[in-house]
Predict the structure of NAD(P)H-binding protein.
Amino acid sequence: MDKTAIILGASGLTGSELLKILLEDESYTKVKVFGRSRLEENHPKLEQFIGDLFKLEEFSQSFKADEVFCCIGTTAKKTPDKTIYKAIDYGIPVNAASLAKLNDINFFAVVSAMGANAKSNIFYNKTKGEMEQEVLKVNIPFTYILRPSLILGKRNEKRLAESWAKTLFEELSFIFMGPLKKYRPNPAENIAQKMRQLAQNRPPSKIIFAEEINEVAELGYDN
């Protein structure tokens, strides 16, 4: 197959893992990355588009592919302004889905969060839940919303709380069995591999929970 993929958020933890995977995958002849700054990555398949993601519609002529993977996300620490926070975590994914629909792209996968709930009193969870609702309303034939638990991996910036939580989860991993398995953290590579697996197999649109994301490591990446 000669596929083209679009990645939003390729500089982040999950997006960077996904970029490596797709560049190595012979199914893809081109991987388009949209972001605010140029990546250091150099690869013959890689095509970079630099600009304001809040104005994604300006990329409409270039936003053409077989699949769109949205790995955009921020944190309250990095983005304390709630208006900007929502513009990133809600606005960019929703606009990306709308643009994908406009350009007849029939596959859209987006990383959300375990606690996503449009009715939540917690701003972060509410924002993710509202994003999910709007993405689903766009009605792209193959739409997948991934809800990971704590995402593990090496980040460029220091996140003390996440570092502490990661150590705790690793030390107490034996606890996350049976009913608690669904709360087990998700390595970023597992999320990226699950996104690729969804693109390969294209099951009916659905929400993918943390436990199912980690199954790619148990089943093997090529399943």
